[in-house]
Amino acid sequence: MFLSEGTVDHLKVLISREQIKQKVAELGAQITHDFEGESVVLLGVLKGATIFLADLAREIKLDATFDFIAVSSYGNSREQSGEVKLVKDVDQSMEGRNIILVEDILDTGLTLTYLKKMLLAHKPKSLKVCALLDKVSRRKMPIHGDYVGFEIPDEFVVGYGLDFAERFRNLPEVCILETGHESS
Ligand code: IMP
Ligand code: MG
Question: Which residues surround ligand 2, an ion (CB under 5 A)?
């Protein structure tokens, strides 16, 4: 952990760099196997999925391209507003492509439900969801990840791409963020 002490935020490592590395390799191998002989589009959801996508892509031994979409998210609060808005659309046509939607975390499922519906209108050949983390107990929509790294408890996590008010994305581990404790 390389953050300086004395902040009001307390970080507790939930998933280590080694655990992440191992899991990302497994997910990449599984995707490579499932799409053998095909090409895929790794479609990342900005900004949280960027670090995961960068590592995952190097574990996928297939003809692959990248694209990115952005949706409005939590802003500076921890709660999902319930509304999803597309902020940046795809750059390439998705028609007839094998899309792997890469997300940092599946929480209520609102974001991915919205994105899946939108992307299916592009008539892709296939559409799969790959999420590093899954907070199953928080789900409000009937959606599941096709490739899921870790099921985690209902805790707010940061690091490895995930943020709180845009901070902490650069932590190499996934950490639980506990606020409200003033450090003495
Ligand atoms: P959903 O629409 O509720 O499934 O939310 C998905 C999005 O919420 C993710 O892409 C994250 O940006 C954000 N999110 C959900 N849980 C967390 C968390 O624990 N830490 C950071 N961001 C989160
Ligand atoms: Mg996100």
Answer: 48
Q: Give the global pTM.
A: 0.91
pLDDT in tens, 19-41: 999 999 999 999 999 999 999 99
More confident: 82 or 58: 58
> Is the pLDDT score of 15 beyond 90?
yes
Confidence check: pLDDT of 171 > 80 = yes
Single out the residue of 96, 123, 107 nearest to residue 71, CA to CA.
107
DSSP 92-160: S--TT-EEEEEEEEESSSHHHHHHHHHHHTT--SEEEEEEEEE-GGG--SS---SEEEEE--S--EEBT
Nearest ligand (C-alpha, residue 77)? 1
- Cβ burial of 171 (10 Å; 0-12, 13-18, 19+) is buried
User: Is there a catalytic annotation at residue 89?
Assistant: no
Measured from the alpha carbon of residue 69, the closest ligand is: 2
